[in-house]
Amino acid sequence: MEVAVRVEAEPWGDASHDPLLVASAYFVFVAIDEDGRAREVPPLVLATEIDQQRWHEAEIRRANRLARKEEIARHRAL
């Protein structure tokens, strides 16, 4: 599961300013079984167009992560 996180800040005691984006990240979580191995989970229901768009973007990020991991492993094997 991929979770997007946005961290926003506001001046202390002054809510008249718009929040300022100070950090953003994607966290990836893996469901594990009793033995600590990755396990399957039920698929998400992509109910809206934005859900489908986010799913597609997450798939692109996943493919990039896996390609980078493979390239690093290949380099270390040299």
What is the straight-line distance between the termini?
32 Å
Main sheet record: 2 strands, antiparallel
| Count of domains | 1
Q: What's the alpha carbon Rg, rounded to whole Å?
A: 18 Å
- Judged by helices, strands and strand pairing, the structural class is alpha+beta
Assembly annotation:
single chain
The helix/strand series, from N terminus to C terminus, equals: EEH
Strand order of the largest sheet: 1-2
**Per DSSP, what share of the residues sits in E-state strands of 2 or more residues?**
15-25%
Can you count the helices? 1
Q: In total, how many beta strands?
A: 2
Output mean pLDDT: 94
Rough outline: extended
Q: What is the percent of helical residues?
A: 25-40%
Low-confidence stretches: none
What would your notes on this structure say?
The chain has 78 residues and is an alpha+beta fold. The protein has one domain. 36% of the residues lie in helices and 22% in strands. The protein is built from one helix and two strands. The protein has one helix at 49-76, and strands at 2-9, 20-28. Strands 1-2 form a two-stranded antiparallel ribbon. The longest helix has 28 residues, at 49-76.
